[in-house]
Write a structure and sequence with these properties.
With about 575 residues, the chain is an alpha/beta fold. It is about 45% helix and about 15% strand. The protein has 23 helices and 17 strands. An eleven-stranded mixed β-sheet has the order 3-2-1-6-7-17-16-13-10-8-9, with helices on both faces. The chain has a two-stranded antiparallel sheet with strand order 4-5. The protein has a two-stranded antiparallel sheet with strand order 11-12.
């Protein structure tokens, strides 16, 4: 019996190898032999797998009817033997076959079943963040296929619900656990329609939810108490790129790095005749503005729906759009981003007293002298006197003392973070993840410094029980991270949100030291005057833009606010800094 099992497995492996080499007809021959052996020895699991492999091969040959036949046989066996993963894959593959047959109503039914099955499997991973993120990314095509199929049959509201269901799931799971919200609310938030309905009563700003397919951008426009409006936009880029939108974004950023300058005081009129209103005035984007394609694809399709008095726009980006400097795309409006509607609803649902109003932690210029190349970072790892000047300037607003130099150890920062309402860190960040280099812990387990002794990693932050109303990461690359289709930009900024921060201000690229100092001085002055973080960011960028020294886009455009809009109370609170 063992030899028969081995022979059948060998045929299956040969079939898989040939399939990967696109020799589908030979693959079918070997999978049929594997199927025969599995039936002879009575191995239902292997039999189901063989049916699935045959279905995939026939699908690749364009014989979608034959593919359906085999995938339905696999589905039947998976249900019989309780193979939930096999069941989910069969649902997805049947949906794909119906989609290629342009029977989108049928495709939707099977994709819904596939998503439900994958979600139930995902729930078994409990609180393992990395596992959940990886699992979600592996099955991204299923979630995407569902909302795209709904768009094909013009069920745009349902498509929004489906796209939201697959967006930043792991972050939302973490927030549910972290905030310990009532069970009834947790149950409501698993219902995407209920989540969006709740938001309609709470949205303070017009909101756009973005999803992408190649270079096409799908846009859902949401406003309080209004129905959802659906629009499309298209970016002009190279479709041959693996991620054409990311490639286009990188090209735009390269122009900024080349000290590209864009200035214009002119305006242009956008017709709002459909509502019987006068023209809305928005800053003209110069024809050579490197981010004009993003304006044309994302903002222009919805600009007629913006009310003249509205000055803020909330954006739920997708994939590489999460790294877009939206302030450079539309200068006239305050911009905030959030990873998903559900995570935003969770933040808004937290009781008002949860996030601390007082207490400040200022960290600047950690000592890195004993470390050799502590980060993936293009910047030299010497003393960051500018970062020390920055936090000392901010400390004067709060009548407190910052942690600088050797005092800015990872252990001390971790100890203080949970007890304050404002965290500001000015240090070096990793070029790929945004993770932050701090001073070495005084007590180490090894004679030689280990990464865990000085790097504030995403896992460290997520394990902290933060109550911060605002986190400001004035670090190189702190807005960076892995770009994932479902979870968004997974980096240090997301980790702070996941750990309980209500709002996080990041920079998307390295900013000139003097420009940063000018921005931060303006930002905290405006906060002290009672402005919200969103308004303070917007006005501080405007001051840079209108200055003689820092008018170029590379100086003012990278500042991005993620999460809720907040106000900060300015009271002396020396206790947390002693």
């Amino acid at each position: 019996m063992g030899d028969r099992e081995g022979e059948g497995a060998a045929y299956g492996n040969l079939g898989n190898a040939l399939y990967s080499l696109s020799d589908h007809r030979k693959a079918i021959n070997y999978h049929e032999k594997a199927l025969k052996f599995s039936i002879e020895i009575g191995d239902r699991a292997v039999e189901g797998g063989a049916y699935g492999n045959l279905g995939n091969a026939y699908h690749s040959l364009g014989d979608y009817r034959k593919a359906l036949e085999y995938h339905e046989k696999r589905l039947k066996i998976a249900k019989e033997i309780g193979d939930r993963a096999g069941e989910a894959e069969a649902y997805r593959n049947i949906g794909n076959a119906y989609s290629f047959l342009e029977q989108f109503e049928n495709a939707v039914d099977y994709f819904v079943s596939a998503v439900d099955a994958f979600n139930s499997l995902r729930s078994l991973l409990k609180s393992q963040d990395n596992w959940k993120v990886t699992f979600r990314e592996q099955h991204e095509t299923t979630y995407t296929a569902l909302w795209r199929s709904l768009i094909r049959i013009e069920k745009f509201d349902e498509a929004l619900f489906a796209a939201e269901q697959g967006r930043a799931q792991t972050l939302s799971d973490n927030l549910l656990i972290h905030y310990k919200l009532p069970t009834s609310l947790s149950a409501d938030l698993t219902d995407t329609k209920e989540t969006i309905s709740r938001l309609f009563t709470e949205l303070s700003s017009p909101t756009i939810f973005l999803a992408t397919e190649g270079l096409t951008v799908y846009i859902w426009f949401l406003r309080r108490e209004n129905k959802v409006a659906f629009r499309r936009g298209r970016l002009e880029g190279d479709r041959r790129e693996r991620d054409p939108i990311h490639a286009l974004l990188q090209s735009s950023l390269e122009k900024i790095r080349a000290e590209y300058s864009v200035r214009s005081d002119r305006t242009f009129e956008l017709s709002m005749e459909a509502r019987g209103e006068g023209p809305r005035k928005l800053p003209l984007l110069h024809l050579d503005n490197p981010f004009k394609p993003f304006y044309d694809a994302v903002i222009d399709p919805i600009v007629d729906m913006l009310e003249p008095q509205e000055d803020e726009l909330l954006i739920i980006p997708n994939g590489a759009l999460g790294l877009t400097p939206w302030a450079a795309v539309i200068e006239s409006m305050r911009i905030r981003t959030v990873p998903s509607l559900t995570s935003y609803q969770l933040i808004l649902s937290v009781p008002e007293g949860y996030h601390k109003r007082t207490g400040v932690l200022l960290v600047g210029n950690p000592s890195l002298r004993k470390l050799r190349k502590p980060l993936h970072c293009a910047q030299e790892e010497g003393d960051l006197h500018c970062a020390q000047d920055e936090v000392e300037m901010i400390a004067s607003f709060f009548n407190t003392r910052p942690l600088t130099g050797r005092q800015a150890t990872k252990a001390e920062v971790m100890k203080r973070m949970p007890s304050v309402g404002l965290i500001h860190i000015a240090a070096l960040g990793d070029e790929f993840t945004g993770e932050i280099a701090l001073s070495l812990n005084p007590v180490r387990t090894s004679k030689f410094p280990q990464r865990k002794d000085y790097i504030l990693e995403m896992s460290d932050v997520q394990a902290a029980n933060l109550r911060a109303r605002l986190v400001v990461l004035s670090c190189t690359y702190c807005g960076r991270g892995r770009i994932l289709k479902g979870e968004g930009v997974v980096g240090i900024a997301r980790a702070f949100l996941s750990a309980g921060a209500r709002s996080v201000l990041v920079t998307l690229w390295c900013v000139d030291h003097e420009a940063t100092m000018m921005f931060m001085k303006s930002f905290y002055q405006l906060l002290r005057e009672g402005k919200t973080a969103s308004a303070a960011v917007h006005q501080s960028m405007k001051r840079l833009r209108e200055s003689e020294e820092f008018s170029e886009m590379r100086y003012w455009a990278p500042f991005q606010l993620i999460g809720d809009d907040v106000k900060i109370e300015f009271e002396a609170d020396d206790d947390v800094n002693k």
